[in-house]
Design goal:
Strand order of the largest sheet: 1-2-4-3-5-6-9-10
CATH topology of the largest domain: Rossmann fold
Largest sheet: 8 strands, mixed
Shape: globular
Structural class: alpha/beta
CATH class of the largest domain: Alpha Beta
Length: 350
């Protein structure tokens, strides 16, 4: 993990609050460069237990840099899974029905554009895809999804861990929190931290090791160490915090079923949303690191093949060699290996 110069691009930021459908206070961050954007808005949606800052790692060029340079009006969404909002025991259903539609309506209103593009990651991707295929995001015309969307597939050991560990851990704590690396506040947190120390020796960064323990089975799970520079590996210590066991309960059901499963009974989400024809005209671009150990690249292949049945030749799948999960955005060479794929897909005429 060699040191390298990180992005020196300067932007102004505007925080735009919005209310989710249940009244929860969330917000968007609008990024403005020196030049006025000549393209429409693109919304970036983070995963579980992190925040929108995950798209701005200390690398030579961030995805935000690349999008601004390409002329896009860039928006970062902090939905209910964000560590920058009040913690809650959320589900994918809540985000799909209550958060993302409200966020997109806010972008449309504030930007003055009728359509929006989206770049979505992990559980932001699952919940956003749930909303899109259920017809809840008619304003979104292009969706670039990373790692997983409608068909979560995990390694066998991770599936077993979900099956056996979630229920007993949930009886002890409503959340897991990689910030316990800096001082576990309860007996359960102390015991789990001892477990992480005992079984994870892949690096000296205990938050990195805690994140692997939290999100799967691997050493590490969420990235390949060789793809991160030393600054990013240090920086990520502040980027991971609480994630509720309610999410892991739902993901366990989804992995067992082989596709996303709504769990809350919202009428807006059909039970067979990952099987039926999607209620959206959006073009999906599926990205996956070939060496992702959190969600196998087969996840995105299955979702791509599912949508292709209804509209052959419309969607796209890119499997990126040498990459894992979050290093698709945080990797020191992602600006060379990944971002051009994203920009080329966004720039295609709809």
């Amino acid at each position: 993990m060699p040191a390298e110069p990180h992005s020196t691009a300067s932007y102004s930021e505007e925080v735009i609050p919005f209310l989710a459908g249940d009244g929860r206070a969330l917000h968007l961050i609008r990024i403005r460069g020196d030049a006025k954007p000549n393209k429409g808005p693109v919304v970036l949606v983070h995963g579980a237990g992190v925040r929108s800052n995950i798209f701005r790692a200390p690398v030579r060029q961030t995805l935000v840099d690349a999008l601004v340079a390409d002329g896009y009006d860039v928006w970062l969404e902090n939905w209910r899974a964000s560590i920058d909002v009040e913690p809650s025991e959320w589900t994918l259903d809540q985000a799909a029905v209550l958060d993302h539609p409200a966020a997109i309506r806010t972008v449309v209103r504030e930007s003055g554009h009728d359509t929006v593009k989206a770049i979505i990651h992990c559980q932001g991707s699952c919940s956003f895809a749930m909303a899109a295929v259920s017809g809840l995001l008619p304003e979104v015309d292009v969706i670039v999804t990373n790692a997983v969307s409608l068909h979560p597939v995990v390694p066998h050991a991770a599936a077993l861990k979900l099956k056996l560990a979630v229920a007993p851990v949930a009886r002890l704590t409503p959340y897991l929190d990689p910030q316990w690396a800096f001082g576990p506040p309860t007996l359960t947190a102390r015991l789990l931290t001892l477990l992480v120390r005992a079984f994870h020796h892949e690096c000296t960064n205990l938050v990195c090791r805690w994140s692997s323990f939290t999100y799967g089975v691997g050493f590490p799970v969420l990235w390949r160490h060789e793809n991160l520079n030393s600054e990013t590996h240090d920086w990520l210590q502040q980027e991971f915090a609480k994630v509720p066991l309610t999410f892991f309960h739902q993901m366990s059901e989804c992995v067992r079923a082989g596709h996303l499963v709504p769990v809350e009974g919202f009428q807006a989400l059909p039970e067979d949303l990952a099987v039926r024809e999607p209620e959206t005209d959006a073009r999906f671009v599926f990205l996956a690191g070939e060496q992702n150990r959190c969600f196998l690249s087969e996840s995105q292949r299955r979702s791509f093949e599912h949508l292709e049945r209804f509209r052959p030749g419309y969607h796209m799948l890119h499997l990126v060699p040498g990459y894992g999960h979050l290093d698709m955005f945080m990797g020191q060479d992602a600006s060379r290996d990944v971002f051009p794929l994203i920009l080329a897909e966004l720039d295609k005429p709809v």
